[in-house]
Amino acid sequence: MSKRAPVKKNDFIEEATFEDLTHDGNGVTKVEGYPLFVPDALPEEKGTVKVVKASKGYGFGKLMERTKESPKRQDPPCPIYHECGGCQIQHLTYEGQLEFKEKHVREVMTRIGKLDNIKVHPTLGMEEPWRYRNKAQVPVGEKDGRFVAGFYQKRSHEIIDMDKCIVQFEKNDEVIQHVKAICERLGIQPYDEANHRGTLRHIMTRTAYETGEVMVVLVTRTAKLPHKEKIVEELVKSIDGLKSVIQNVNSKKTNVIMGDETHVLWGQEVIYDYIGNIKFAISARSFYQVNPEQTRVLYEKALEYADLNGEETVIDAYCGIGTISLFLAQKAKKVYGVEIVPQAIDDAKNNAKLNEMNNVEFEVGPAEVVIPNWYEQGIQADVLVVDPPRKGCDEALLNTILSMRPKKVVYVSCNPSTLARDLRILEDGGYETLEVQPVDMFPQTMHVECVSQLILKG
Ligand code: SAH
């Protein structure tokens, strides 16, 4: 990268050609190798760009005129798309999104993983890439004396009121509107972030895809919530399928949504949902995949890649509430799951009981510590599944895989870059990556999930 920017603020670049998209959906054009990030510009497009900011290694520009339009451009269907920032690529057709994600995965496999000939399949997308999210969480505040709940405006903490979000289940929109209206009517004070005052901070709702059960979580600054009984009474009256009303107390000055204290105000502590044939209990703070339709696609692919015949011992690292573990346990002799969050392991154990599955065991702890311990105790996996957070697998865990030498590794990943890095380490240690399958869990956004299959060579 050049030392000095080849452009300066207010320069115009004629016929700038866009070649890529960044993770926040900006188009990328290059001037003598120097990247300029430009909102609302797509790969293959051309236009005139005005430089708005020129830092040392990169700059930002504004598209003044588009002279060539991508055939994959579309009008973003959401009216608040440009202010919100929750979605980044609504201006790209869905077909274009799926192609872009596949290309991106292939590109990082080559660049970061040095895996040139690897088989990357076309992205598995949704038939209807809208209204797919089972969980909504909206910040609450006050604006011009009015109670508002919606989303933070891009790059700010200003809350914009919102009545629908077209990637959410319609039910979630409806629930949020009811909660908002009820709390406003009963005079519940919205949270004032600047002064750390007020009561209601966030409204969270989750609707189970298969059962229709609804949970509402009111995140409050104080344990005291005025008109508790009345709120519950009105929620029960207005929301069909409501099974659980929860209060979570978060008294800290923080961006983290939920606090440590949780009370059931009404109904069940959990709601129930199914993925395939397996039933799951989901509590307010459980991590549960947000796109149920595609979760099933992803898990089925993982199961296909694990290729089980009923005789195998399987380890599921980073198991969360045991969703993948239980999915695999249907076809394996024994599954061991490990996860760092104790509450998630409690959920996982309960979920195993709920499904009367006796061939699973769960343990709390870092995968990179627990799995080496298991290995020392003589637990030898035939298949090892990993589904780590964005930063990928810990090196100690990768080294354990290389000593344990399971015949197959199934790697589920929400970050292609760390996936590529880790695949390279496993390849160097004797594994071969047979294929990578991108799955679109988050249509309209830049995120892409992948599942890949590796086998031990020789
Ligand atoms: N497989 C699950 C969860 C995947 S998300 C599902 O599909 O629902 C990744 C999980 O890894 C999270 O639950 C997170 O708490 C857990 N985690 C993060 N670091 C970990 C570590 N070092 N060891 C074990 N689990 C970890």
From TrEMBL:
Active site, per annotation: 414 (nucleophile), 414
GO BP terms, alphabetized: methylation
Annotated InterPro entries: MeTrfase_TrmA_AS, MeTrfase_TrmA_CS, NA-bd_OB-fold, SAM-dependent_MTases_sf, TRAM_dom, U5_MeTrfase_fam
Keyword Nucleotide-binding appears in the UniProt entry: no
Entry keywords, A to Z: Methyltransferase, S-adenosyl-L-methionine, Transferase
Enzyme class, UniProt record, top EC level: transferase
PROSITE patterns: SAM_MT_RNA_M5U, TRAM, TRMA_1, TRMA_2
GO MF terms held by the record: methyltransferase activity
Thylakoid listed as a keyword: no
Domain of life where this protein originates: Bacteria
Ligand binding (S-adenosyl-L-methionine): 289, 318, 339, 387
E.C. number: 2.1.1.190
Span of domain TRAM: 6-65
CDD domains in alphabetical order: AdoMet_MTases
PANTHER family named among the record's database cross-references: RNA M5U METHYLTRANSFERASE, TRNA (URACIL(54)-C(5))-METHYLTRANSFERASE
Family designation: Belongs to the class I-like SAM-binding methyltransferase superfamily. RNA M5U methyltransferase family.
Name used for this protein in its record: 23S rRNA (Uracil(1939)-C(5))-methyltransferase RlmD
Organism listed in the record: Bacillus seohaeanensis
Gene: rlmD
